[in-house]
Write a structure and sequence with these properties.
This protein has 150 residues and is mainly alpha-helical. The chain has helices spanning 5-11, 17-50, 55-62, 66-78, 94-116, 121-131, 137-148; strands at 82-84, 90-92. Strand 1 and strand 2 form a beta hairpin. Helix 2 (17-50) crosses helix 5 (94-116) and helix 5 (94-116) packs across helix 6. The longest helix is centred in the first third of the chain and has 34 residues, at 17-50.
Length: 150
Amino acid sequence: MSVDPAKRTAERPLQEPDAQAEAFAVVRQAHQMETTEDYVELIDDLITSQGEARLVEVAERLGISQPSAGKTVARLQREGYVTSEPYRSIFLTEKGKKLADASRERHDVVYQFLLKIGVSDTTAKIDSEGLEHHVSEETLDAFRRIINAR
């Protein structure tokens, strides 16, 4: 079924170039932070549940190779999110813990919102994993209002 181009434009008008560039810049920034947020949240979960986060488990949980995980952990260390030494556990810095907590809170709000609007638990778990990185504070506040509405 094709949609009349005039109708599509009315539903989603073309933005001014500066506004469109700004929107794309926000999305690019969110994409750049996705991996960092996923790693620090996972590392925090592992430390909380098992007392430590080891590279082998980080790689296993993310479904990637240890060398790939190791490269990202090295980057996170350079950026001040984690501390680690070869063949030792990975620890979050204060900066990393703060990011993990914020990421988890966003994730939980998105997950609860999806459940509230009738999305199945399985789908909400999967979808919230991606959406959490792209949600503004304004949208999160709206989600919270809907979650808390009777």
